[in-house]
Amino acid sequence: MTASNRLLVFAFTDPVCTWCWGSEPILRKLQVCYGERLEISYVMGGLVADIRAFYDPANDIGGDPERSNEQVARHWLEASQRHGMPVRTEGFRLFSQQAVSTFPQNIAVKAAELSSPELAPGFLRRLREASAAQARETGRQEVLLEIAEEVGVDVERFRRHLDDGSANEAFQADRELAQQYGVRGFPSFLLRYQGREMLLPGYQRYSAFERKISDLTDGNLKGQVPAATPESILKFLRQYGRVAPVEIETVFELSPAECEEVINELSAQGQVRRISAGNGVLIEGKL
User: Fold this and answer.
1) Which of 47, 109, 153, 263 places its Cα 20 to 30 Å from the Cα of 142?
2) CATH number assigned to the domain comprising residue 148
3) Which domain holds residue 122?
4) Are residues 169 and 280 in the same domain?
5) Confidence band, pLDDT 50/70/90 cuts, at residue 3
6) Integer angstrom CA distances of residue 7 from 108, 190, 197, 250, 252
């Protein structure tokens, strides 16, 4: 597969956006079903510059940082019931008087890209998990450094890119790209294929991606759903690390009951473990 025949997906995102978290099953399915024919790049959009000056009328979020934590937690829990990804509201504290923005999390992703490019997607994923499913205070630099270390990012280089402004400069370039394409909400997705482009604003179902990809590529690219065997699901877990059950259900087109049956089988064999994650669980393959 040459670069010119590869579909590029630019995912405009913020590490602490709940519908970006909810899009993880769809992005996983795109990666699995289209394989090397598709490449996903993440563009950091920066959802909240300052929560004190921010207001989301649809969800009544904004203003005082401490009050906003209650509003965001309630919104995330409601969204979780729709998109299926786990959320922890107990101890949730995304904002404080010292942490009023989501920009630090966005900048941290760029620092990971500059420090250890191959590990940056894993850093973004773990950052989403830490924020949504573990209620860690990811706006604090010490927590961001912990997450970098957890996924194997070169922590000294990571810290240097945070401190010398290079990560922020890369973040500002991402914001300019979002502005260039008129992106006003997250997630949004830009599909690019052989010089042709298509923007999909907002949360999207996999079926919507399928239709748009077919239109953009004149039917030349089609996804293939993998067989839902315990072996293929275990391979998926080992490739992506921790996943929520809804990600397995989405990728392999299983019902919740069918997914639970496979997880139970793999768990009985000692192949996977369940990790408590707020109102749900994450499944992790054992090495």
Assistant:
1) 47
2) 3.40.30.10
3) 3-180
4) no
5) low
6) 27, 10, 10, 21, 22
